[in-house]
């Protein structure tokens, strides 16, 4: 069971209407290393991961949905006042033709989200290594977007999300160590 | 649509976001360090503070949660704006 809380995890502010930035940000909404992929990956893997690390996958997976909502809020705020002409000039003409200003789960290039972005191998080490890689790739994506963004308000929230990727990666690395230690115990005692 | 709220709304909301972030961080940390007594103490203290702040916020601005974790006024005010992306 999940409950909704009527607040963002971290405040999202944008300085100006900027559909071009929204186009880049969609990468973190419906892209391969985006927040949707992250949430679905961890919450799906948790059923077959050893009990010692289920809690971590459950909680990080849940936090990812809060991040997905932050990205959605950014895209919404960056595009809500844009005219069709502005959207077209920002490279969102293809998006507008199909979705108006509605959000859609696709990446920055317009490729729709697919379950093939995520894996559940059933091997705990393989799954956790994928999770660490996912966090590092998402961190890199945030960095590339920050590098292209000239909106200081938006960058504040993006930097928060970038730091969360680092914390998640480090927690997953600890989970690997916990499982390795456990495996060692079974073997030698 | 965005909705302008009194300054107190933003201030109280940000205070809740700050304490809830402390809780999320401690929660993830404790998921991999379950024997850290000091961190558990901090987690419980922050949780208590968060519950107090939310009770105060909800009295002024309505429910933060649905499905039985917040009380409602008349008429049912859970569905009132602003939603988080409208703040």
TrEMBL record, chain A:
Pfam families per UniProt: Mn_catalase
SUPFAM superfamilies in the cross-refs: Ferritin-like
Keywords carried by this UniProt record: Calcium, Manganese, Metal-binding
Binding site for Mn(2+): 35, 64, 67, 135, 168
Tree of life domain: Bacteria
The keyword DNA-binding belongs to this UniProt entry's keyword annotation: no
Keyword hit for Nucleotide-binding: no
Matching InterPro entries: Ferritin-like, Ferritin-like_SF, Mn_catalase, Mn_catalase_dom
Cofactor(s), names only, from the UniProt record: Ca(2+); Mn(2+)
Family from the record: Belongs to the manganese catalase family.
UniProt-recorded name of the protein: Protein CotJC
Species for this entry: Caldibacillus thermoamylovorans
Gene name, Swiss-Prot/TrEMBL: cotJC
Automatic annotation (TrEMBL), chain B:
Ranges for domain Protein CotJB: 11-86
InterPro entries in the cross-refs: CotJB_dom, Spore_coat_assembly_CotJB
A Pfam cross-reference name: CotJB
Domain of life the protein comes from: Bacteria
The name this protein goes by in its record: Protein CotJB domain-containing protein
Taxonomy of the source species: Bacteria, Bacillati, Bacillota, Bacilli, Bacillales
